[in-house]
């Protein structure tokens, strides 16, 4: 192994024997050879550890860490603490990657002298009739692709989802700023505060449109699918709040940004929940959003017209969002929006009238 490690790849593992070989094969076969692979087993109870040791015995670049079950945050942090490469990547053990991922991202990072590089990714679902990948359209602001970006000056990059496995990070940047994952036991959503800190403190970043990671969306054991962890997202934004208070020099640039990130994450979490979980979360969500709105922690210019309307509905009707009342209001609002659009747009009006005439003829 070369003495100068270019990239350390951290792979957290917990009960993924079904997918683990595909993941590790994609990592060990990277075209970039000056790498180390830090595999951290978080107390798996299936055959994951056996598989990890099998790969470790064959490849000297692999470091195997076996520990008791402590959760995702502590597991990834253990890998980051051990890593020795110039840059660090994190790959989920139920995903897999393209063979040239780290060679391309490393070269981009070095040639542009940036703290972080992010790529697009694929969504993969194995349960549909035809197994296939779907490229996730790179959703950062138009004009910010394939060039250096300064995150605190290009705030939209905070709002596009922060999948930690689509980045590489300069290790010195992470260590000097003490950026690590929140270590809440058994928690979920622990990429939220980590990614926010990275973008808030990054001197510069680079975003590429090429996709490298195949992100598996149908793993039923994924922590994001656990409804019992609904309030973990709140813990992440409390951590973001503490982080902002510790960095007064950038507070004015990122405070309102963090509140929009919170709204987007809370709204997504609300829609995935049902019944009592949704009712309980809606109350907490309403309380926080209403507080921010009342106390001036809200910048309307960061929101689209639709997002602003949704924010007000969630802030004002949180206790009713889980019931029929919210859906009645939402349906009513949709009809109202259509009416206004038709009334104020001549083309829409002509199409609407034409549709009515065609309908009458068929009847």
Description of the molecule:
This protein has 12 helices and 10 strands. The protein has 363 residues and is α/β, with parallel strands linked by helices. It folds into 3 domains: 7-219, Alpha-Beta Complex (Spore Coat Polysaccharide Biosynthesis Protein SpsA, Chain A), CATH 3.90.550.10; 240-322, no CATH class; 327-363, no CATH class. Strands 1, 2, 3, 4, 5, 6, 7, 8, 9 and 10 form a 10-stranded mixed sheet that branches. Strand 6 (116-125) and strand 7 form a beta hairpin. Helix 7 (232-245) packs antiparallel against helix 8 (248-272). The mean pLDDT is 85.
Question: What is the CATH class designation of the largest domain?
Answer: Alpha Beta
How would you describe the oligomerization state of the chains in this entry?
Answer: single chain
> What's the gyration radius in Å?
23 Å
3D shape: globular
Helices and strands, in order, run as EHEHEHEEHEEEEHHEHHHHHH
Structural class: alpha/beta
Concise structural overview:
The protein has 363 residues and is α/β, with parallel strands linked by helices. The protein is built from twelve helices and ten strands. The mean pLDDT is 85.
């Amino acid at each position: 192994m070369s003495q100068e490690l270019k990239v350390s790849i951290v792979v957290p593992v917990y009960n993924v024997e079904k997918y683990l070989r595909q993941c590790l094969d994609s990592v060990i076969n990277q075209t970039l050879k000056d790498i180390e692979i830090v595999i951290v087993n978080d107390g798996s109870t299936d055959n994951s550890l056996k598989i990890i040791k099998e790969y470790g015995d064959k490849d000297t670049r692999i470091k195997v860490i076996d520990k008791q079950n402590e959760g995702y945050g502590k597991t990834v942090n253990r890998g980051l603490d051990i890593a020795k490469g110039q840059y660090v990547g994190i790959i989920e053990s139920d995903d897999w990657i393209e063979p040239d991922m780290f060679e391309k991202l490393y070269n981009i990072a070095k040639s542009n002298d940036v703290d972080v590089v992010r790529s697009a990714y694929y969504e993969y679902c194995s349960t549909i009739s035809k197994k296939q990948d779907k490229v996730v359209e790179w959703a950062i602001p138009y004009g910010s692709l394939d060039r250096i970006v300064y995150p605190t000056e290009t705030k939209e990059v905070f709002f596009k989802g922060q999948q930690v496995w689509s980045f590489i990070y300069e290790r010195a940047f992470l260590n000097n700023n003490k950026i690590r994952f929140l270590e809440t036991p058994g928690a979920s959503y622990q990429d939220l505060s980590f990614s926010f800190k990275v973008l808030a403190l990054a001197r510069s970043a680079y975003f590429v449109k090429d996709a490298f990671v195949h992100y598996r969306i149908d793993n039923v054991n994924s922590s994001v699918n656990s409804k019992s962890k609904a309030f973990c997202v709140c813990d992440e934004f409390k951590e973001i709040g503490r982080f902002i208070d510790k960095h007064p020099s950038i507070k004015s640039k990122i405070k309102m940004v963090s509140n929009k990130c919170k709204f987007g994450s809370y709204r997504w979490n609300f829609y995935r929940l049902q019944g009592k979980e949704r009712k309980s979360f809606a109350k907490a969500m309403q309380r926080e959003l209403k507080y921010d709105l009342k106390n001036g922690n809200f910048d309307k210019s960061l929101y689209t017209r639709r997002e602003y309307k949704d924010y007000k509905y969630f802030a004002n009707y949180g206790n009713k969002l889980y019931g029929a009342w919210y859906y009645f209001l939402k349906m009513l609002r949709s009809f109202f929006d259509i009416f206004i659009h038709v009334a104020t747009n001549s083309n829409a009006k002509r199409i609407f009238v034409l549709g009515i005439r065609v309908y009458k003829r068929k009847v």
